[in-house]
Amino acid sequence: MKITVKSPAGIRASLLRKPRSVSAKPSPFQPSPSGRVRFFAPVLSGATLLDRLIACGGALIGIGLTGYLCSLIEFHNAGINLPLLVAPVGASAVLLFAVPASPLAQPWSIIGGNIISALVGVSVGRIIHDPTTAAALAVALAIGAMSLARCLHPPGGAAALTAVLGGPAITSAGFTFAFVPMGLNCFVLVGLGWLFHKLSRHSYPHKPSVIAVNTHGTRDRPAPIRVGFQAEDISGALADFGETYDINPDDLDHLLRRIEMRAFERTHNNLICADIMSRDVIHVDKNTKSQTARSLLLDHDVRTLPVIDDHRRVIGIIGLRELSRLGEMVSDLIADAEVTLPDQPAFNLVAPLTNGRNHAVIVVDQNHRLLGIVTQTDLLAALAISPRPR
Prior knowledge:
Helix content is about 45%, strand content about 5%. By secondary structure, the protein is mainly alpha-helical. Among the domains are: about 50-200, no CATH class; about 275-385, Roll (CBS-domain), CATH 3.10.580. It has a three-stranded mixed sheet with strand order 3-4-5. The chain has a three-stranded mixed sheet with strand order 6-7-8. Strands 1-2 form a two-stranded antiparallel sheet. The longest helix has 23 residues, at about 50-70. Mean pLDDT is about 80; it is low at about 1-35.
């Protein structure tokens, strides 16, 4: 029985999940250690075979349904039929289904980037009649326009080229081409992409990682990000390299901090919750009077009391914060408990015990019965001991 963790957004799913072995078999999409075939390996980090198969399925469904839905509407202008699908949409589908977390694949990037670039291409084509000059200028201006509108999208360059070199049907459509079929294709594709990723349990539109916030209402930085690198360090490092990376700065911050945590975890992974938990736990049941719970907290100088039912199953916690509210019985004031299993790595408790809200994590068995408690003091004392060399 896996116990559900109730913790802040961004760490809920990972706190109690057993970390992957560092010696796990490498993905077939990772570069070869020998380097002999490194030029044939994708540079996308985190890409797996399953992810690529999902991307293929998404593109198949997305492009197919986009073409079908658009075929239900007759595109015509001055007696010349417009295409049902335009080529840049195929490139947009690659980003949408293969790298949905990319800033270049977000809804505004796909819709705004393609429409704006098509408008730029039509405008340039009407002013400059030499195809080569018009094509070069259209792509250059499209990049500038997309950058200003914060919707940079690589297929936008193809949209601008299509508007200039697309032939009589597109030329005769004029600015209408930017909206029908280009804009309509993009709206339908993004809608289908959103639905596909929802069904395949991928996040889209991508929400950048939320950096920890101070829960105490002061100007201090939250404890998890008070030491180590800061946002200005990331900006400075990017400036040092002089490169543009296809990742949101907040995601990069979250990724680097997770790397630090993984490295620290590797040196403490032999320590489990059962090793450091207190076993003689002061607790109350749900029928205890709130005044009795307050007395226990003060008499034993603790900050959290597990609340159990008649079968010793943990149903929540109570502390002075909860007791500050009106309520005669503990059951009226109970709060959600942060729980873990005894064989889980103690390092997993760093995140919930440094988020500014939890003072303790309750250790339970497979049936959710109370076994022990790990407080901030317990964890700090354990991590202060240097790990043995391996």
